[in-house]
Amino acid sequence: MLAIRRATQDDIPEIHRLLLAFGRHWQREEWVSGTQAALDTALFGLDHRGFAHVAELDGKVVGMALWYLTFSFWLAEPVLFLEDLYVDEPARGSGAGEALLRTLAAEALDRGCAWMDWIVQTDNEATKRFYARHGGAHNADFDLWRMEGDQLRALAERG
C-alpha cells in the first residue's frame, strides 16, 4: 500500500540514502555533501528552512520530496519550490512520484502559494514528460543562473 506523509526526524537516514541514490542516478554523487546531521537541522532545527514528505510502499520509504518556501514580491505571495523529488528505481510506476507531487500541490494551496516551481536537468526527458503529464509546463522565459564558490567570494569581497 502506498502512503505519503510528512517526514519525521526518524526519516533522516532514509532521506539521506535517497539523496545519495539520486546523486548516483545522475552520476553526481559527489554533489551530495550534506550530512545526516545537517539535514536534520535543515528540516527540523529551530530555524529550519526546508520541508520533506516521504512516500512509503508497504511500510518502506521509497521516495521523497524536499521543498522550501520562497516568495514572489510581484504578487506578494509565497511560492513553493520543489528542490528534489526522487523515487527508488524499483518503486517507479507505483504512483509514488505522482502522489508526492499531488501532495505538494495541496501543500502549496494550503499555504496560499501563487505557484510551485522546480528545475529539471536539460537532458532529463523522462522527468520532463512526467511533469508535463501532471500539468507542469516549461517556463522558457527564464534561465537558471548561479554564482558559487570563488566567484561568490570574489563578488562579496569587492570594494
Structure summary:
The chain is α+β, with helices and mostly antiparallel strands. The chain is 35% helix and 25% strand.
| Alpha-beta classification | alpha+beta
Note the main sheet: 5 strands, mixed
Q: Span from first to last CA?
A: 59 Å
Could you tell me the number of beta strands? 5
Radius of gyration from the alpha-carbon trace, in angstroms:
17 Å
Unreliable parts: none
Strand order of the largest sheet: 1-2-3-4-5
The percentage helix is 25-40%
SSE order: EHHEEEHEHH
Q: Report the mean per-residue pLDDT as an integer.
A: 95
Residue share in β-strands = 25-35%
Shape: globular
Number of helices: 5
Question: How would you portray this structure in words?
Answer:
This protein is 35% helix and 25% strand. It is α+β, with helices and mostly antiparallel strands. The mean pLDDT is 95.
SSE order and pairing:
Layout (H helix, E strand, L loop, with lengths): L1 E5 L5 H14 L10 H9 L5 E8 L2 E13 L4 E11 L8 H15 L5 E3 L6 H9 L15 H9 L2
Parallel strand pairs: 4-5
Antiparallel strand pairs: 1-2, 2-3, 3-4
